Amino acid sequence: MDFADKRQMKRLIYIAVALLAAMTALANGRDSCLFRVVDGDTVYSVYLHEVWVYPPLRFKNKKQERFYWRTVRDVKKCLPYAKMITRDMAYADNEFAGLPDDKSRRKWWRRFEHQLFKKYEKDFRGMYASQGLMLMKLMDRETDRSSYELIKRYKGKASADFWQFVARLFKNDLKEEYDALDRDRITERVIRLVEAGQL
């Protein structure tokens, strides 16, 4: 095998490796890649998803460790629902904007609420109480509106006040806002790691 053949073989191996890497990147759906030819050479470019780097967690006791892993479990369970519900809300807001008055909005909302109930009831009935609370936090994070504001928007102030009263009986607050920098910083860390596929 002469020098030109070796060079050709080496180039074919590079192309095969690049194609294999491209198919792998495209198959996992997170990264994207492309090929460019520069001065007769094929250049392979890959755009990788974000990678979050945090200092390792040091738990003071077993209670802290259990809290962290429960948060991981609850985020993994609730985050997809929060994103789906946010899309449903965007659809509802768009439909509301096209309706002429409150009466038609209430009528439309009753039908849509029935559809949502059928869509989510089975899954939500199987959730732990901590997962319900996590879903409220995630909805605030996704929509930048507290649970109280969301209920008020779609069901009215009287309904929002009633559910706030019920929440207060169980030492919860529907008006509490998501705080990624302080109170909910561990939850935010878990969300970022889950979204990046690192957890």
Provide a descriptive summary of the structure in words.
The protein is mainly alpha-helical and 199 residues long. The protein has two domains: 3-47, no CATH class; 62-195, no CATH class. 67% of the residues lie in helices and 7% in strands. It has seven helices and two strands. A hairpin with a 2-residue loop joins strand 1 and strand 2 (41-47). The chain starts with a helix and ends with a helix. The model has no long low-confidence stretch (mean pLDDT 83).
Task: Give the total of beta strands.
Answer: 2
Q: Outline, from the CA principal axes?
A: extended
Report Rg: 25 Å
Helix content: 55-70%
Largest sheet: 2 strands, antiparallel
Number of helices: 7
Order of helices and strands: HEEHHHHHH
Determine the N-to-C terminus distance: 49 Å
Low-pLDDT runs of 5+ residues are none
**How many domain units?**
2
**Overall pLDDT confidence:** 83
